UniProtKB/TrEMBL annotation:
The chain crosses the membrane at residues 18-42, 89-111, 131-154, 175-194, 206-224, 261-279, 299-319, 331-351, 363-384. It comes from Streptomyces purpurascens. This is NADH-quinone oxidoreductase subunit H. The keyword Transmembrane helix applies. Residues 409-421 have a biased composition (Pro residues).
Length: 458
């Protein structure tokens, strides 16, 4: 396989009549909406199960219509526009946040490109369309959605929504870099940016096995991109009330909620396409059943994989607490980005050696030796750097701790110590003081009548 982009055969796309394009577009929209409705109910029930409580059980059989009831409730609520809001941008922001979430599904394959299905007698592929740069298209439309959140926070005319919008903008920028590096590893192995070609290249082995670190990096970044727990800092109710959507109500608030869940489905579909074989049947099934990847069956395997990733979203939310904002940014800039860039260099090196017809054992030897040499060099440099810092560091006495610096109670800084807490008087000592006995804290005695006599004699 060449390191450069392979020549894709995308001639089967763009030949559908207009009415069939409309049907496929409506199907993509309906697939997202139905998956969102199922995901909301599943999230409430799964988190309730994890926390040993009942969960929704009133609306519909087993509470399965709870998400539909939530949508009706939000649509019937009073729609309020705050007085200080920029009304045009305030109304437009939820639309900008929701629409790009639906656009990425257009290039996701639900089935093999060569396996055409019949819809009203017309043969067509199980994909709306595909592009030679389909993955760049997904990154582009995903980046547009951030404008809706930022504009929502700015146009509300309130402090907390503005802070939530700024947090979301910084978070998106930080995590999209590592996400792009994880995508680049897949591009190097598949030789293409076309989604259908990437799935076709996983016929023998899924990329989760060849690129496990890329999969882990993408899982972390997709949780950060969707502003889900533990990375839900833009809407953390503990310090921002509700974040960028604090001043929104009714259908506009519902659109932000819809955009979040649609983005969850979209990034899960992208992860399925890039790392989990897309529409391909799992390994045990594909070995003994030849028709597992034909007809309408590929859509079933694709849907099951997406649902498993959505369950992972819910599992993470029910398990991990929210991180601090400095921890969020440190993870993005100091961990994910360096690791993703180093991993991308290793993948590119392996692909270049494979193109030069090197044996796998030689590649492992060269790459492993290079990584080991870098680790040893880094350890030696850090060791000498720490010794030089200790030698140059003057003996500094920590500054005295002022617990009321600036007029407010403050915690001690690193290197400072709390003053010793005053010893609390015992009940016996308090009774002696009230009854006219000696102050036992001053003379150290817990005395009775004899101590009082000696004190009076003194």
């Amino acid at each position: 396989m060449s390191l450069y982009l392979a020549a894709e055969d995308l001639s089967m796309f763009g030949r559908d009549p207009w009415w069939l394009v409309v049907i496929k577009a409506v199907f993509c929209f309906a697939f997202l909406m139905v998956t969102v409705l199922v995901s909301i109910v599943m999230e409430r029930k799964v988190v309730a199960w994890m926390q040993l409580r009942v969960g929704p059980n009133r609306h519909g059989p087993w509470g399965m219509l709870q998400s539909l009831a939530d949508g009706i409730k939000l649509m019937l609520k009073e729609d309020v526009i705050v007085k200080r809001a920029d009304k045009a941008v305030y109304v437009l922001a939820p639309v900008i946040a929701a629409i790009p979430a639906f656009m990425a599904i257009a290039v996701i394959p639900f089935g093999p490109a060569g396996n055409e299905i019949s819809i009203f007698g017309q043969r067509t592929t199980m994909q709306l369309t595909d592009l030679p740069i389909a993955m760049l298209y997904i990154l582009a439309v995903a980046s547009v959605g951030i404008y809706g959140i930022v504009l929502a926070g700015w146009s509300s005319g309130s402090t907390y929504p503005l802070l939530g919008g700024l947090r979301s903008c910084a978070q998106m920028i930080s995590y999209e870099i590592a996400m792009g590096a994880a995508f680049a590893s897949v591009f190097l192995y598949s030789g293409s940016m076309s989604t259908s070609t990437i799935v076709e290249q996983q016929a023998d082995r899924w990329y989760i096995l060849l690129l496990p670190l890329s999969f882990i990096l993408y899982i972390v970044t997709m949780v950060g991109e969707t502003n889900r727990a533990p990375f839900d800092m833009p809407e953390s109710e503990g310090d921002l009330v509700g974040g960028f959507n604090t001043e929104y109500s009714s259908i506009k608030f519902a659109m932000f909620m819809l955009a979040e869940y649609v983005n969850m489905v979209t990034v899960s579909a992208v992860a399925t396409t890039l790392f989990l074989g897309g529409w391909r049947a799992p390994w045990p099934i594909s070995t003994f059943w030849e028709g597992a990847n034909h007809g309408w069956w590929p859509m079933l395997w694709f849907t099951v994989k997406v649902q498993l990733l959505l369950f992972m979203f819910i599992w993470i939310r029910g398990t991990l607490p929210r991180v601090r904002y400095d921890q969020l940014m440190k993870l993005g800039w100091k961990v994910l980005i360096p690791v993703s860039l180093v991993w991308l260099m290793l993948v590119a090196t392996v692909r270049a050696l494979r193109n030069e017809n090197y044996d796998f054992a030689d590649i492992v030897l060269y790459v492993g030796g290079g990584v080991l040499a870098l680790l040893v060099l880094s350890f030696v440099v850090d060791m000498f750097r720490e010794k030089s810092k200790q030698a140059e560091r003057p003996a500094e006495t920590p500054a005295a701790f002022d617990p009321m610096a600036g007029g407010y109670p403050v915690p001690p800084l690193p290197g400072q110590e709390l003053p010793p807490a005053p010893r609390r008087r015992s009940r016996r000592e308090r009774e002696l003081i009230v009854s006219g006995g000696p102050d036992t804290q001053s003379d150290g005695s817990l005395g009775g009548s004899t101590d009082g006599k000696e004190a009076s004699d003194d």
